[in-house]
Amino acid sequence: MRLTELPLRQPAFVDLIDWSVLSPSEGQRLREFGLCEGASVEALHHGGLWGKGPIACKVGRMTIAMRRNHAAAVTVRTGPDAAP
Amino acid sequence: MSVLPLVALVGNPNAGKSALFNALTGARQKLGNYPGVTVERKAGRLALADGRPVELVDLPGTYSLNAASPDELVTRDVVMGRQAGERRPDALVIVVDASNLDNHLRFALELIALGLPTIVALNMVDLATRDGLELDAAVLARELGVPVIATVAVRKRGLDHLREELGGLLGSAAPEAKALPPERDFDVVRGEARRIARAAIVRETPSRRLTAAVDRVALHPVFGLLLLLGLLFVMFQAVYAWSEAPIAMIEGLAEAAATATRDALPDGMLRSFLVDGVINGVGSVVVFLPQILILFFFILMLEATGYMVRAAFLMDGIMAKVGLSGRAFIPLLSSFACAIPGIMATRTIADPKDRLTTILIAPLMTCSARLPVYAVIIGAFIPARDVLPGVGLQGFVLFCLYVAGIIGAMLVALILRMTVTKGASGGFLMEMPKYQWPRPQDILLGLWQRAIIFLKRAGTIIFTSTVILWVLLSYPKPPEGSAISQVDYSIAGRIAGGLNVILEPIGFNRDISLALIPAMAAREVAVSALATVYSIDAGDDEALLERSLGDRLKDQWPLPTALAFLAWFIFAPQCISTIAVTRRETNGWKWPLFMLGYLFVLAYVAAGITFWTATALGLS
């Protein structure tokens, strides 16, 4: 499922990132934040009154905020054998 | 002066670098700029364990040597020895957040590979312990091949050890520094960083997470927004409520100085110059120091606690609607204090069009220099009564003026994004730091630096423009027995008379026209200019001289004029310093002139509409 669909506070792992959605500098920044295939991720908050705002999520030990269109580029896996 | 060894503090944002810098250098800091860019250079002196002095420079926080924004470029160029106006550091102190090792070690590995003498400060170990993380600094030092020192900057822990280690490092023969870091694959370095972090972690237990708990409220779509609005409202109420006593004190001092000068000197040019020009003029601006410091206190607190990024998160949805990112909220909120640091803070915005739009609307945020103008007019014309228990009408009007600036800025951004800065909107990617309680000393130091900047302005720009205005107002003298007043007869009065042709339709009188010219130097000069005008106008009339500026305005201005004046200052074409910083940031005259033009038009239209509406409603 996409990171945007991940229920809040459910631990998951990044399966795949569609880097083509991101500009090179955005991709670089996400990588610097530690968001990459295999990273642990947990959605924490959805911003905006109608759920259209940015998403705050925990990547490793860091909390980052990103817009929904970027979060939609991240596919995640949950469940007992999701860990890489 | 011999050249001191240069040590650079470098690390990720939110690693606690600035707190470490403050703890190491104390109040002996020098703020400056790197040539050609508006990135602030923060340097200070640090004494090593053996007493040798070292120059310490605090580089902008960045995530890697792969720089994206102007401030990150400075960090990269300094550590590589390519930054103009800065020599290559003799040693690096890499600051890493103990609770975020995976990420911070990757950048640390990049920096260590440069081959400069290096120490790693494993900072905020107390917060890591609070989060249930136990680390072994010795393992880390072995794996990284450089000394690692556990520090808690805010409690001054580990600092002596750091000074000692730094002394040893600077004394030893320097290893070879490389001009360029070796090319290494990003993922390989990250893998290595993760492996080292795993090795250094002794124990990791899940524990209470304060930040997560607070964020459940602070980032909530409804409660979070209410909290933000509440905070801003308290901030603006406090600007009034907390400042009464210190303002009365400064006013008392200025009055005493004026009386003493009047008594000590014979009537004449010198006395008029000192009393009307210097004491009344500059004094009427210095009086606002308490309010400006209260505003800065809130902004510094919001930044230091980590709340500012939450505000950006909450605002991103709204900012996106006008084509900006939530990130722009931070420079815009800083612009409430002053547009200059606000415009400088836009350098963290990577997208050029996002950044330009943010720069262009920054002057619409009500800066603290407008506060003196608002405060005088509100104090004179808005009755001091409560609209609700604990909510004063004056504070409420002030709040409305701020809101008007914000709405204006949003509309302008929307229009700019559809016209001159058209293009795809940039994204919103931000790290959200943990909440922390700032050290009182750090906040006090920030306030002290702001106070000095403000007083320097009062002593230079404001003093000079007030003095020039006094000269222009005092000469030439009208002939004996003339019916024309001194102000009308003077050079300034004649210039204002000409300008009045344009400004009269929007309800401005001669005195306002007079005040608006020097207000281009700095907005708050409008107040000192009015004070000087009325001081000269009063001549030797003791009864008039003793009346406050607010009382005199109340006598002479109809209410619609006062309201139009407030409306003008919502958009007020900005001060010369803002134009200068915009020119530097946008590399040319095109955008500062554009900004000046559109602000003038908006100010004129807004003042006009206010005046005509108020007159039509019969307000007086």
UniProtKB/TrEMBL annotation, chain A:
Domain Ferrous iron transporter FeoA-like, first and last residues per copy: 1-78
Keywords: Iron
Transmembrane segments: none
MF terms (GO), sorted A to Z: transition metal ion binding
Protein name in UniProt: Ferrous iron transport protein A
Originating species: Sphingobium terrigena
UniProtKB/TrEMBL annotation, chain B:
Protein name: Ferrous iron transport protein B
Domain of life: Bacteria
The keyword Nucleus belongs to this UniProt entry's keyword annotation: no
GO cellular component terms attached to this protein's record: plasma membrane
Origin species: Sphingobium terrigena
Sequence ranges assigned to domain FeoB-type G in this UniProt record: 4-172
TM helices/strands, residue ranges: 218-242, 278-302, 356-384, 396-416, 454-473, 562-581, 593-614
Pfam families in the cross-refs: FeoB_C, FeoB_N, Gate
Keywords, ordered alphabetically: Membrane, Transmembrane, Transmembrane helix
CDD domains: FeoB
A GO term, aspect molecular function: GTP binding
PANTHER family, sorted: FE(2+) TRANSPORTER FEOB (PTHR43185:SF1), FERROUS IRON TRANSPORT PROTEIN B (PTHR43185)
